[in-house]
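$ fold --in a.seq
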Amino acid sequence: MTTQPERLHHLLDRARRGVILPAEGEQLAEMVGELGERLADYENRINWHTTCASCARILDSAYAETVRAETAEARVAELEADNARYEEVVVGELNEANTSLQRQAARAEANVARVRQAVDAGPVGSCCAHLIRAALNPPAT
């Protein structure tokens, strides 16, 4: 019975000589795939400075969660900045609308004051209609 390294060397030798059978080619591909996975696992352990595969997987998971959390926090910051810009625009528009409404209210109050003044100054009744119309439509200044 041959060991895995001996079998691998045998299959590689046959592949180099171009006499490998299709079934042997599949075996070789499978062995190379397994070795690639093992190599990746060893490299991962080295990156985390550990020999424990479970520890490396836990650290991978923790790192992935940290990256996910940092990405989410960055997105939240972007959205908050967008929200602040939108609030600034909306507040500005509301202030403009409020100013316009205050002007309209001031004009209405001035009209009411003119009407009261006209009514207080003259006789009350149908005879003072011309005074009220004049108060509501003051001459342009």
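$ fold --in b.seq
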Amino acid sequence: MGEQGYFLRPLPETGVAVLSLRGLGVVAADLPQGWAPAGLAFAIASLASRPGQSIRLWEEGGVFRTAVSGGSSATADGDIDEMFLDWLFDDVTVRTCQLCGRPGQPSQKRVAVLCDFCEHLLLTNDAAAPFPPRLPLFDSAASAQLELIDRGILAWVPAGWARVALRTFERLDDVRLIQKAIFSDKGDHLAIDISGGGGIVAFDQIRSDLEDSTRARCRHCGRWSSPTATVPGQCEGCTAIQARGWEIIRARNGGEVGR
């Protein structure tokens, strides 16, 4: 992807994998850096089965591509099934951001596999991202967030809680509740109160359901979050991604990224 703009600095292991692929003689100049660890794993498995093999790896239309030839079978049992390896690593790369190496998914707006953070930076060309790196949003959470924004309500709600917030707002069908409801972010859950005090019985159940539902879901991605999670309010996957740190950088070499 020859893009100009801001990106997440690729994870350190992606750089190590790029150098290792070169050391193995694998042709991978057109393989995005985020996919280099998967490419290295493919090359190691393929070369273990057939030493001396020529290997070329590249990305085409957001898909991991391979070409192998030559070499000698290492055992009398035959080679590893190349079709199986292709399937396995295609499945790995379709879940990996090709720019930074973090968890990603096929983009709906680019012909690429991207993490939410890299996609946001690409689309906005703005280094001020409104959320930290995370696991990819489920479609239902993403659509709920867009609906909240379109309605001009609760646009500040973390994406992972957007679906619950939208459902809660729709339950406030009593005009008195809609006008008085006050939402607030408590870190590990969303809370709702009524200005001027309570007095509306139906509201108590709505408030309880909102708090229970958001406590059980990651604020970043919407996946289930354990009550004993390392960081209250988020799943272990998002916690692990963020614990590794991140840095926003500009595209280098005239916009060539992942090379």
